[in-house]
Automatic annotation (TrEMBL):
Pfam families: HemN_C (PF06969), Radical_SAM (PF04055). GO terms for cellular component: cytoplasm. The gene is hemN. It is an enzyme of class 1 (oxidoreductase). This is Coproporphyrinogen-III oxidase. Keywords: 4Fe-4S, Cytoplasm, Iron, Iron-sulfur, Metal-binding, Oxidoreductase, Porphyrin biosynthesis, S-adenosyl-L-methionine.
Length: 459
């Protein structure tokens, strides 16, 4: 694929409808209530013991509430709440470790939240030592151990400690560097703070640094966001995630503190995105897909170029060959053909573990059709295409016939030269790259069952 991104505002407006981000297929809204932990135990028992592991730990605590946020979090300044949570978390880790046969390596670890750096340096050290006592962590050069940080929640030695504990990648939210915007969303962090974190992280040798930006926030304009982009490009993070702010105050209570009248209108918001794409392309960032940019020498870009990029609940990843094991409230595991989500409230999580049960709340066992469509959606999002012959061999079917209704649904996008369908496969064109999410929606047999306001708009 080229580094050129076709930008046509009228075309994007025409196709810009709400839909999933496809960190899984079927998506989490399809998960069904779990009546017990029996199916999760069965998933562990049937797991290939040689398959490597990706671990996700959810640390839900935040000292401050960011008004745009829709994450599962507990806002508190009471740091004493983390100690009992960590004890319960260790109980879950022990239970699941006992169900894992063999000694498969951990190739990927991610601490997310919430704010993992809400934990004290001592708690972070103890947690990592505990994990290493239970699992064999890979020493391969491409092992990926990452953590989300909040620049406002770093003690003087926190970054140094994280590096010593084995973390080699960090990610943090910037969102916008304009003080007026930061004030409106209750996330004030001066540019000098961000630059200091970047400088220290570089000096400590973190091999990949990701920043999150959000467009569509209150008081943003093309002019103000351009200033933010200038500063970010100058800081030169390895990866950038540029998210569309979806204003859904009926679903996310903190967003009710954002005045809808202060948000940029649709035209301005689209102009911000278009300018952002052009500016990052000029700065030699490769568009990976779905709002994600990476330097050409970053692992994500290299994996995409070599056909080895994957997508799961971690987003784009270079370790899609792993079983994903989630720990903590709301975390999701993907074990073989099973998706399993933990309890989303502290009470439910504690109650299950108090009864010596796995804290599963929802689950889904994928069907053969689900797995076919998951492969198609993953191929489109990661590599802009899929081959029918590969699908035929992988699933033992006539994939073109099985996907006939979806291919028919794509006909308007074919006419608009966004997609090409040939005897050999499906390809998203250069013209259609920014609308890959829309292409995937044609293969989602569940989507018509849901109200559009369950999802954010594609752009």
């Amino acid at each position: 694929m080229s580094e050129f991104l076709f930008w046509d505002p009228l075309l994007i407006q025409r196709y810009n409808k709400a839909g999933p981000r496809y960190t899984s297929y079927p998506t989490a809204v399809e998960f069904k209530p779990a009546v017990s932990d029996a199916d999760e135990r069965s998933a562990f028992a049937q797991r290939d013991p040689a398959k490597p592991l990706s671990l996700y730990l959810h640390i839900p605590f935040c000292r401050h509430v960011c008004y745009y946020c829709g994450c599962n979090k507990i806002v508190t300044k009471d740091t004493s709440r983390s100690a009992p949570y960590l004890e319960i978390l260790k109980q879950e880790i022990l239970m699941k470790r006992a169900l894992l046969q063999g000694d498969a390596p951990v190739e990927q670890l991610h601490l997310g939240g919430g704010t993992p750096t809400f934990l004290t340096d001592e708690q972070l050290t103890e947690l990592m030592e505990f994990l290493r006592s239970q699992f064999r962590f890979s020493t391969a050069a491409d092992a990926d151990f990452s953590i989300e940080i909040d620049p406002r929640e770093l003690r003087p030695n926190t970054l140094k400690l994280l590096r010593q504990l084995g973390f080699n990648r960090i990610s943090f939210g910037v969102q916008d560097l304009e003080h007026k915007v930061q004030e409106a969303v209750n996330r004030i962090q001066p540019e000098s703070m961000i630059r200091a974190v970047m400088l220290e992280a570089r000096e400590l040798g973190f091999r990949s640094i990701n920043m999150d930006l959000i467009y569509g926030l209150p008081f943003q304009s093309l002019e103000t966001f351009d200033r933010t982009l200038d500063a970010i490009v100058d800081m030169s993070p390895d990866r950038l995630s540029v998210f569309n702010y979806a204003h859904l105050p009926e679903r996310f209570k903190p967003q009710r503190r954002i005045n809808a009248e202060d948000l940029p209108d649709a035209g301005e918001k689209l102009a911000i995105l278009g300018h952002c794409i052009n500016k990052l392309s000029e700065a030699n960032y490769h568009y990976v897909g779905m709002d994600h940019f990476a330097k050409p020498d970053d692992e994500l870009a290299r994996a995409q170029a070599s056909g080895k990029l994957h997508r799961n609940f971690q987003g784009y990843t270079t370790h899609g060959n792993c079983d994903l094991i989630g720990f903590g409230i709301s975390s999701i595991s993907q074990i073989g053909d099973w998706y399993l989500q933990n309890q989303t409230t502290m009470d439910g999580y504690e109650e299950a573990l108090g009864l010596d049960q796995l804290p599963v709340m929802k689950q889904l066992h994928t069907s053969a059709d689900d797995r076919l469509r998951r492969a198609v959606i993953s191929g489109l999002l990661c590599h802009l295409g899929v081959d029918f012959a590969v699908l035929d061999q992988q699933f033992g079917i006539d994939s073109r016939a099985a996907l006939a209704a979806s291919l028919t649904e794509l006909e308007p996008m074919v006419k608009d030269e966004l997609v090409e369908i040939s005897a050999s496969g499906i390809r998203i064109t250069e013209r259609g790259r920014l609308l890959s999410r829309n292409v995937c929606m044609a293969f989602d047999t569940y989507l018509q069952q849901h109200e559009q306001n369950r999802f954010s708009r594609a752009i």
